[in-house]
Amino acid sequence: MLPTIAEQTLADQQATEHLAASLARIARRGDIFALEGDLGSGKTVFARAFIRARGCVDEDVPSPTFTLLQVYEPSLPDACPIYHFDLYRLDAPDDAWELDIEDAFASAICLIEWPDRLGPLLPAHALSVRLRPGTAAEQRRIQLAGTTAWRQRLQETGLA
Ligand SMILES: Nc1ncnc2c1ncn2[C@@H]1O[C@H](COP(=O)(O)OP(=O)(O)OP(=O)(O)O)[C@@H](O)[C@H]1O
Ligand SMILES: [Mg+2]
């Protein structure tokens, strides 16, 4: 398991959306956000706020529960695509090749729900975003874990 970089309590959904938007602002091509947590923990809420913060404000951001993948092409200058995966229904890691993961990892920003389904295909430089229940219904605990490069970036941008 990668070392924890930052951990905090999110009081409500708005707090989750705020943190997702902050990460969206520092994200760049090639970044992978591995969204971990049980059913209903807030992975799609996080992804939706992230995608909107990257400029996809007019679009619906449906959960890719059945499609496994939704691709967004933000209209901002220099913007790169966002690949939003929900791999809950992926039967085997190798099936992910059909979802264009090679291309996505190289030239997009990836948000991946249920990243454990990728097994060894999940790149080691992914930032792990772990959502857990808090002590109240609306509360979540969030943990960011990853490489030294991620630690540096998050510290430089005040997110750790
Ligand atoms: N602090 C919070 N952060 C995120 N979601 C919250 C929070 N408090 C309550 N919620 C609610 O929890 C639910 C999270 O649902 P969401 O679809 O994002 O879960 P998920 O992790 O994507 O689940 P799944 O594994 O089924 O895809 C939403 O109904 C949301 O309104
Ligand atoms: Mg979801």
Task: Give your account of this protein's structure.
This protein has 160 residues and is an alpha/beta fold. The chain has one domain: P-loop containing nucleotide triphosphate hydrolases (Rossmann fold). The protein is built from 4 helices and 7 strands, in the order βαβαββαβββα. It has a 7-stranded mixed sheet, with helices on both faces. A hairpin with a 6-residue loop joins strand 6 (127-133) and strand 7. It starts with a strand and ends with a helix. The mean pLDDT is 94. It binds adenosine-5'-triphosphate (ATP) and magnesium ion. Residues 43-44, 63, 86, 113 line the site of magnesium ion.
- Domain count: the total is 1
Name the shape in a single word: globular
CATH fold naming: Rossmann fold
Instruction: Kindly state the number of beta strands.
Output: 7
Short structural summary:
The protein is of the alpha/beta class. It has helices at residues 13-26, 43-53, 101-107, 148-156; strands spanning 4-10, 32-36, 69-72, 82-86, 109-113, 127-133, 140-145.
